[in-house]
Structures are given as C-alpha cells and as structure tokens.
C-alpha cells in the first residue's frame, strides 16, 4: 500500500489521523469538533485499522500517547460487576438487617431509586453530553466523557464509565441524600439508584455488543442505534424511553 492510499484509509474528512492519538489532535478542530465527533468512524476503516495495528486493543482508536492514560480509557464490563454489585448489595443489607427496614418499604424505596436513576440518565445524556461545547477545554472534557463513544460506537471497551469517577460521583450523591433524609432511606435509595446505573450500563453494552434475543433489548438496540446514526439530538434514553416520551425528545418511529 502506498503512503497516499494509507492516508486515504486512516485520515478522516476533518484531517484527523486515526493512526495517531486523538486527544492531541482535537485542538485543531475548534468549532468543527461537535460535528466531527458525531460523524462515526466507518466499520471498514476500523477493520483496516485492526489489520494495521495488532497491539493490545486491535481496532481501537488511540486516545492518549501515554500508555498509563490509554489503559484507563478501556473499561472491561466485568469490572462493573466486581465493583458495583457488592456495593448495591451491602447498602440494602445494612438497611434491612442492621436497621430493620420492612421488606415492603425497602422494595418501594429501592424502585424509586431506579426511577430516579432513569431521570438522572436522561438529563445527563441530554444536557451534559449533547450540549455543544464552546472551548478547547470543553471539547476535550466532552470527548473523554462521551465523545469518544459517539466517534467510535463500535468499541466494546469504551462503553462504561470509569469506576473511580463513578465512585466519586456516587459518594457526593449519597452525602446529599444524607442531608435531607434518614440513614436507612438514604441507603436504600442509593442502592436503587446504583441498581438503575447497572441496568443502564448493561442495557448500553447489550445494545451495542450483546447477542440480542429478548424483544425489549431488541427495541432498546434499535432505539439507541437511531440515536447514534440518525439523530444524536433526540432519543436520549438508554435503559428506558420514558423521559423521552415525557419531554417529547423521542421519535414517531418508537
């Protein structure tokens, strides 16, 4: 392959070279960043990239030059199970077996926590991740938080939120609960909210990479695929279309 042919394969329409780390290249995009990041890489390009680079993550675009930073951008789904399932279980167990909360009350507050999560998910996705950024720093923060997933929605190692960041955010939310409600209620509400987060994470993973046989997950797959490839400014629900229907940001096709 000639250098010119290789460049056509790996340099996109915005001048970004997929053979090089993306993060340092973003400063040159300026006002074109939001348009670029919502123009997904073609699968054929990723196949050629996999053939070109047989490294630790073949077929993944590289974000950072530094290997220790690059490692942190790849989150295996098993880590979510190992970290969050024990926390969800422990929060509920303390409220039930140490503080004596009745099963019925526990179940009701836990389900409320899941509902709260669906609203948090919607608001964060719509306003936190899909409000155009206005600065180079904003572009970089958006890219790390959500942009990389829209630019390369086919990468199964970049679907999940980094655990350390998630633990920090969860801690702040839990402390906020403690300011306005009793300890046992805070524990169960947090357990439910984190359960909703787990449902979101696995709904998202299955939507992109799972073997989908269940009708509900097939629906979510079509719903989320339309968000990525047809209308990134709508269809913000991932684990549920509920709030898209409430706030009328859905689609007549769903």
Explained architecture:
With 254 residues, the protein is an all-alpha fold. The protein has 2 domains: 3-69, no CATH class; 76-246, no CATH class. The protein is built from 11 helices and no strands. The longest helix has 27 residues, at 183-209. The model has no long low-confidence stretch (mean pLDDT 88).
Please state roughly what percent of the residues sit in beta strands, choosing from under 5%, 5-15%, 15-25%, 25-35%, 35-45% or over 45%: under 5%
Distance between the termini: 45 Å
Computed Rg: 20 Å
Low-confidence stretches: none
User: How many helical elements?
Assistant: 11
Total beta strands: 0
Layout of strands and helices, then pairs:
Elements: H1 3-10, H2 33-37, H3 43-52, H4 67-71, H5 77-98, H6 103-128, H7 136-151, H8 163-180, H9 183-209, H10 215-229, H11 242-246
Helix pairs in contact: 5-9, 6-9, 8-9, 9-10
